[in-house]
């Protein structure tokens, strides 16, 4: 009888080891896939081509720039237009990643955006007039993926840095 229990115990341990290895392999493959998705998305932003960036978003995607007065953009076309405006307002846009944390279907990216806008621009309810001096803005993105595409991008910018590096930062009237 002890022999039978030992076989059951050995079989259970072997099954647990195989299951554990299988789960670890799946996690490793998922991580590699997420890394590739993020690399593709970074390359699209590096190209500065709004169409290329938007093509990596789901049709029902959401871009939420967390600044007072900014409304989330929903849908690939709306997101493309918002990204085009961001790139137009800051033609020298470039970012440097400082930290990346991967989840099963999302990534959190801390980065710094090189800014040197040539003309006044609006973020949220504030119109900024640039100094013509370059500066760097800390930012964080939380990006969720679904079926290999970005389904949601939430961006946090340090608007105090933008304000500090502007000649003026005038509040605009909120829509009625």
Could you describe the 3D structure shown?
This protein starts with a helix and ends in a 5-residue tail after the last strand. The protein has a single domain, classed as Nuclear Transport Factor 2, Chain: A. The longest helix has 46 residues. Helix content is 40%, strand content 37%. It is of the alpha+beta class. The N terminus is likely disordered.
Outline the fold blueprint.
Layout: H1 2-47, H2 50-54, E1 57-65, E2 73-74, H3 76-89, E3 94-102, E4 106-115, E5 121-123, E6 126-130, E7 135-146, E8 149-157, H4 159-164, E9 166-171
Parallel strand pairs: 1-8
Antiparallel strand pairs: 1-2, 3-4, 4-7, 5-6, 6-9, 7-8
Question: Key features?
Answer:
three-stranded antiparallel sheet, 9 strands, Nuclear Transport Factor 2, Chain: A, disordered N terminus, six-stranded mixed sheet, 4 helices, alpha+beta, single chain, globular, 176 residues
CATH architecture: Roll
Mean pLDDT: 87
Spatial strand sequence of the major β-sheet: 2-1-8-7-4-3
Order of helices and strands: HHEEHEEEEEEHE
* Main beta sheet: 6 strands, mixed
Structural class of the secondary structure composition?
Answer: alpha+beta
Q: Whole-Å distance between the termini?
A: 81 Å
Q: Which percent range describes the beta-strand content?
A: 35-45%
Summed up:
Helices cover 40% and strands 37% of the residues. With 176 residues, the protein is of the alpha+beta class.
């Amino acid at each position: 009888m002890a022999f039978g229990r030992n076989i059951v115990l050995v079989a259970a341990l072997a099954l647990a080891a195989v299951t554990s290895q299988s789960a670890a392999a799946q996690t490793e493959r998922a991580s590699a896939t997420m890394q590739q998705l993020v690399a593709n998305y970074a390359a699209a932003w590096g190209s500065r081509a709004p169409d290329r960036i938007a093509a990596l978003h789901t049709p029902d995607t959401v871009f939420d720039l967390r600044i007072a007065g900014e409304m989330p953009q929903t849908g690939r076309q709306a997101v493309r237009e918002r990204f085009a405006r961001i790139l137009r307002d800051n033609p020298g846009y470039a970012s440097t990643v400082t930290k990346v944390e991967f989840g099963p279907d999302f990534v959190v990216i801390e980065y710094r955006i090189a800014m040197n806008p040539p003309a006044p621009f609006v973020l949220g309810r504030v119109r900024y007039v640039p100094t013509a001096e370059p500066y760097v803005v800390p930012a964080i993105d939380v990006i969720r993926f679904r079926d290999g595409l970005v389904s949601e991008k939430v961006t946090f910018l340090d608007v105090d840095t933008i304000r500090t590096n502007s000649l003026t930062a005038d509040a605009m009237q909120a829509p009625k």
